[in-house]
Amino acid sequence: MAKVVAITSGKGGVGKTTTAAAFAAGLALRGHKTVVIDFDVGLRNLDLVMGCERRVVFDFINVINGDANLNQALIKDKRNDNLYIFPTSQTRDKDALKREGVERVLEELKQQFDFIICDSPAGIEHGAVTALYFADAAIIVTNPEVSSVRDSDRIIGILASRSRRAERNEPPVETNLLLTRYDPARVAKGEMLTVEDVQEILSVPLLGVIPESESVLRASNTGTPVAFDEDSPAGRAYLDAVARLLGEQREMRFVQPERRGFFRVLFGRA
Amino acid sequence: MRIHGMRLLNLVFPPRPKSAAIAKERLKIVLAHERAGSHAPDFLPRLQKELIDVVGRYVEIRDDMIRVSLDKAGETSLLEINIEIEGATPAPARVSQA
Fold this sequence. Notes:
heterodimer, A: alpha/beta, 13 helices, 8 strands, 41% helix, globular, B: alpha+beta, two-stranded antiparallel sheet
């Protein structure tokens, strides 16, 4: 049974697209046939983060409007056979994302895929609500920072009241917290909210903690999902979070300040 | 002296292409394409679909045998339509609508 996972946050710039790309790559690496969809109509960026910006011909809106079929629009990843990218349109018409059309496309995707990752736009407008409406699970991407935590709380409320599961009185959307850009050294100095602080305030289960890492910018520069960089702390943290999403137990890593040994100081990279 | 040292180091450990340079190159390409006013793709898919319908009345073709693109060079726009029919078989005769 295919699972629809929304990547959402309310606030912009916290790492939704990075997370959507990393989870899609991680699930594909684990052998699950996965598609990642860009819901940010008019501000397409998932294609750049996934490194397939030159291969976009048809998009989500073309398929919704019946101008192209699904298999013409899906882009097969060149690094992993289980991974597909579904780009959005650059149209300025935000209402192009009609709910009935999205539902029809998702039903068709469910026939082919194990996981459907929905990369939400920022905000709480039409696009963001559409991205979470059909979700079975949601990943709330949050930075340890006051405005991000507050906006995450808003989105958790919207998931609980305005998702299809809520409207139909079905079991609620399985909602998880993913803390990104976490800096254990600053946390240790008392300069940053701790994992426990954020979890206590939002009270949703913790799926993972992604440390602030140079590898995230390097990944987006080169159009490679960071989960493909298994040498980097962020890549490994994402792979752990993917394992937890699949129901495995993994110890939280990268939450303590790193002790840099002599050789790491000489040759190490973040 | 220092420069020579760097060169030697680069010979022994060739530097990896910096990711920022890759980012800049990718952005230039994608933005050049988007700024060229290629907002036309909004109607291109529909045009392509209708072309397939029309041509398909005469020869059997697949979706991927028609390519439609719009290019802009200065003041001139060029709508390019490529239809590949090599190996295509004539479409079955249709009942006249007369």
